[in-house]
Amino acid sequence: MKIEGVNRSELARHFVVDLPVGFREEDGELVPVIVSARFRIMSLDFTDNVEAKLPPKPVPPKRPLRSRGKPERDEQGRPIYEYDERDTRYLRQIDAHNRAYSAAMFIEALDDPAWEFAATRPDDSAESSEWMAYYRAIWDEMSEFGLSAQALTTVANRIREMSGISDADIEAAKEGF
Question: Is it the case that residue 119 has pLDDT exceeding 90?
Fold first, then answer.
């Protein structure tokens, strides 16, 4: 592909994000500790590649739809069901999935030799459960170090933004399946 007036080799392929990791005491004052991380600008299929490594996103359980305390029924007398998006088990599963996804976005785009993790990266042919465990371990390491969930989510959103991946791109890719 060519674009007139644009030399692809001159385009930035990396960006840097400053992340708060905690505080330290200096002269009796608490001073924030900020670390920088360098990330690659990713291709448009990046989110697809991340999602392919993870198990499918959890689906909330169904429960009978109730009206005035009684189960609602369709014309054939069968119960009508609705998704229970407040189910505590589902909420724990979706939280774990979202954490793994954010960690995956972070670690897959990270291009900074200063950052090292103890978690061992699975082989590319690994099952989604192994990738999930790896990304959970990465999340745990970052969390134990002092990175907040908000910081990690901000980085994941920044990776998408800098890579030109919009919410519409993600939704369009999902519709293609």
Answer: yes
